[in-house]
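Hello Y.,

Per our agreement to keep a running log of every chain we model this quarter, I'm adding this entry. I've kept the format consistent with earlier entries: sequence first, then predicted structure.
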Amino acid sequence: MSAVGAPAFAQERQGRGQVNTPGGLAGLFLARQGRRRRESSWNRDGRNADRYQIEPGATHVMADLQGAGIIRHIWVTINHQEPDYLRKLVLRAYWDGQSEPSVEAPIGDFFGVGHGRVSNYWSLPLNMVTGGGPESQNRAAMNCFFPMAFGNGARITVENQGDEPTLALYYYVDYESFDSMIDEALRFHAQWRRVNPTSPRLDLSNRVNDFPRTNEEVNLDGNGNYTVLEATGRGHYVGCNLSIDHLNPIPNFNWFGEGDDFFWIDGEATPSLMGTGTEDYFCAAWGYPGGFNSMPYHGISYPVAPEEGPERYSGKWTMYRYHVEDPIMFQRSLKFSIEAGHANVHANDYSSVAYWYQTLPHQAFPGLLPVAQRVPIPDRESQRSFWRTF
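Predicted structure for the entry above:
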């Protein structure tokens, strides 16, 4: 260890590239390498019009960076009057001249809240700051603090796949530049998926299929699970957000969870990481009795249901779990899936964003669903569906 207390591994790495030692309050006294830089929507004429408009079908390049560096922070706020625009604007990021994006997600989901909604929540890597209740869709600031390394250029874009123009896109992309990047630096990835509805194992409109009956179902191989991530290469998974619209409850039982998480590492036939229930994976217990909560590594960023009554777990929910302290490493591949209720008994609307780091090139992403298949189910329709089987 050096006289200033810098870890030895950081000293060694400087000969093969540059990177700052992990940040945080404890390391603020250490000298830093590189140069702080920024791309933003500031008005080049000096007027207070620090924004860009994006016409339907157009793509705006937020950052087109050269050389090596690490993006440390992205801030975005948007004025777009079209319903469900947070599912119609697509955020993408490309590293090191790759033609395929390593990040591809509807912009709202990427920042931690699904269903085309906003919410005043926080976590360590992601947050939203709203100017009112969830109905204030055009008053959300969105922040990302996931570090994103690149060795030979980076490109971040927003595409408007809606029918109306984005009236204002404001943004910062804060990064540090270096002469070169260390060999060990993996590239950040994020991918959105949706299945609506999931394929149920049982017909829950049949009142015989009550909670005790569904608990007897068996799922040991993960067949029919909702897939959150499939990746090949070397890397580590660092978390996800999962959005569920509860359309298909068990008769007289309103909870949508109980679905276990399955992780297959490096092609193993049997998952080596097995969970005990959806709420358990997202670090809660016995359902989500407290409703909304936001914590550094886990939380419920969006509940829409009332706090009491049979409809308590109806409607739209987003939950998150970030493996900042406990990433799941893989050398060749990783698959992560979760049951839609115990043994996949529900036909619910599931969507997610997975976040991970890995080597390039990555496995090709499934094609992004067209807009019509991305927009959320209207709340009234969701509630009608819930009451059909409850």
